[in-house]
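User: I'm putting together a small comparison set for a docking exercise, and I want a reference complex before I start. The sequence is below, and the ligand is calcium ion. Could you produce the 3D structure with the ligand included, as structure tokens?
Assistant: Of course. I'll restate your input first, then give the structure tokens for the complex.
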Amino acid sequence: MAGATAGRTYSGPVLFAFVRHDSPWPMTARPILIDTDPGQDDAVAILLALASPELDVTAITAVAGNVPLPLTSANARKVCELAGRPDIAVHAGCDRPIRQPLVTAEHVHGKTGLDGADLRAPEMPLQEKGGVEAIIDLAREVEGLTICALGPLTNVATALTRAPDIASKIREIVLMGGAYFEVGNITPAAEFNIFVDPDAAKMVFASGCKITVLPLDVTHKVLVTPGRIAAFREMETRIGDAIADWTGFFERFDKEKYGSDGAPLHDPCVIGYLLWPELFSGRHINVEIETASELTRGMTVADWWGVTDRPANATFIGDVDAEAFFLRMTDRLTRL
Ligand code: RIB
Ligand code: CA
């Protein structure tokens, strides 16, 4: 089937064939649960997942993070309705971290969490079932569920604590969080998602689940430059305009702090990794979480150079082909 495969032509039996990202081949969609604290970048990640037939979004669970839980659970529904998917089950999870007081990020995302684009209040209902219960039930019911964690890990850790059996049922936890070379964005030592609930992160990294980490080292390379904002505008759709408005709003934090050429699209990297892993590279290493020190609370101590004998517990992504990612993401979002 022309165009269906790339890779070398062999005279003998096909040893392997790379399925291109735009393969017309029928496929079984990978079931995922998105745990999120929308957040403009979370919103783009949710839209990318809903635009991708390779993924089956079984549910969305909201967690307190960028803004308090009532807002993150409303924002998740606003995004589903923007995508024309009021059928998606959205559950409200934990409204505060396991031990620490809640720290939010209105200074980055605005007081609604989705400042920049004006979306109406959601009409679709919030599910009765809580987010933690939804994670437990779906991990038990859905074969090979992947959890995409885009916010503090409070819901995920609470589910693993309440139902340890799900650790062996979850296919993979792909999370945006942490940093190595990039160190921190909320403190000099820590990235926001891990900082907000370091105890939850410690539990998740010790759970035995297969974990893949998209840290700031990757997401700070995926910047929404003016040209990329223009590409969203050129989609000439409500979704393209919303993304351009959102990223145009929340870029000011990173531009002022880092002098960067646009907002880092943190959370879409999680979905992009699932869709196009060939664009990312990393190492399987040990990652520990600092929970005791006030000075370095939430630091991801990533043994990138293997200087300890601590066992590897995560695939820590270090690089991405950002241009290819943006081209594919923009193309994919036009399909919504
Ligand atoms: O540090 C970036 C992360 O914190 C992103 O997930 C952003 O949405 C916030 O949750
Ligand atoms: Ca987030």
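Confidence is low (pLDDT under 50) at residues 1-21. The longest helix spans residues 238-258.
User: Thanks, that's exactly what I needed.
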